[in-house]
């Protein structure tokens, strides 16, 4: 029974944050502790993503953004990287098959050009096929880096200036936001990082300006809807001032 029901407004059951972001960390340690190869942790983590995404949809969260693969994760062994890419393919195949049932708008943030043509084709198909679903959107960050995203946006804006489409003096925070992968999406209200690491690891650097953070020692493959409820309950105890009083 979810603690936070869809679109509730009573003081006891406040509505969930509109946008939740998660650094899905701890897969490798989870597997190692069980004497399994790290890739088994990624497989378990991908199941947890499915479960948490569905749960977020069911309790009325509008946007879920997950960090699945960073611009720095290419440093890992070829074996681990290709296992992660394989799991992604598997996830996308299934998402395409179950789209009518799940009704999740799926979007992808990151420099996707480095991904394989096969994966790119699947991403493109998923993006287009899911465009009709409007209630809940999951953004999957792939080859994503917060700094890379900002550089990419700055370059696109500079390019627009050279063609006369934009003028440097017109640049505002809001205009700049429209050049980010997250264009048109509200900033995350709550950013969750499991696995005990207290750092941001290049995730949503621009968008996190006023996000509330929630850190837990639970490893991502052990993360449950009840853990998410705890994070949301902590979020509701925060006093967000946005620089005011
Ligand atoms: C997160 O889990 C998944 C990716 C970064 C792709 P990790 O693989 O980083 O797991 P730990 O941090 O080594 O336990
Ligand atoms: C962040 O986790 C990236 C993802 C979860 C996809 P990492 O495991 O790569 O981060 P660090 O190396 O602990 O900072
Ligand atoms: Mg990690």
TrEMBL record:
Q: Which keywords, in A-to-Z order, does the entry hold?
A: Magnesium, Metal-binding, Transferase
Return the SUPFAM superfamilies for the record.
Answer: Undecaprenyl diphosphate synthase
In terms of Pfam families, this protein maps to: Prenyltransf
The family database entries (Gene3D superfamilies) matched by this protein are listed as: Decaprenyl diphosphate synthase-like (3.40.1180.10)
Q: What is its EC number?
A: 2.5.1.-
Q: Which residues bind Mg(2+)?
A: 25, 212
**What family does this chain come from, according to its entry?**
Belongs to the UPP synthase family.
PANTHER family, per database record = DEHYDRODOLICHYL DIPHOSPHATE SYNTHASE 2 (PTHR10291:SF0), DEHYDRODOLICHYL DIPHOSPHATE SYNTHASE FAMILY MEMBER (PTHR10291)
Q: How does it assemble?
A: Homodimer.
Protein's name in the database: Isoprenyl transferase
């Amino acid at each position: 029974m979810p603690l936070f029901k869809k679109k509730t407004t009573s003081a006891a059951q406040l509505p969930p944050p509109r946008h939740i972001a998660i650094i899905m960390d701890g897969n490798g340690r989870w597997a190692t502790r069980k004497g399994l190869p790290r890739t088994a942790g990624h497989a378990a983590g991908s199941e947890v993503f499915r479960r948490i995404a569905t749960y977020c949809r069911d309790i009325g969260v509008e946007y879920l953004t997950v960090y699945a693969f960073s611009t720095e994760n290419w440093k890992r062994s070829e074996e681990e990287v290709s296992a992660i890419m394989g799991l992604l393919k598997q996830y996308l195949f299934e998402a395409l098959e179950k789209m009518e049932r799940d009704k999740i708008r799926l979007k992808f943030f990151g420099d996707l050009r480095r991904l394989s043509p096969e994966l790119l084709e699947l991403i493109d198909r998923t993006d287009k096929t899911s465009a009709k679903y409007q209630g809940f959107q999951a953004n999957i960050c792939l080859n994503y880096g917060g700094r890379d995203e900002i550089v990419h946006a700055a370059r696109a804006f500079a390019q627009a200036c050279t063609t006369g489409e934009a003028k440097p003096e017109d640049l505002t925070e809001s205009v700049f936001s429209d050049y980010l992968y997250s264009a048109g999406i509200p900033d995350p209200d709550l950013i969750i990082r499991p696995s005990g690491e207290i750092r941001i690891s290049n995730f949503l650097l621009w968008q996190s300006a006023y996000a509330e953070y929630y850190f837990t020692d639970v490893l991502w493959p052990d993360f449950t809807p009840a853990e998410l409820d705890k994070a949301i309950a902590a979020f509701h105890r925060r006093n967000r001032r946005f620089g005011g009083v």
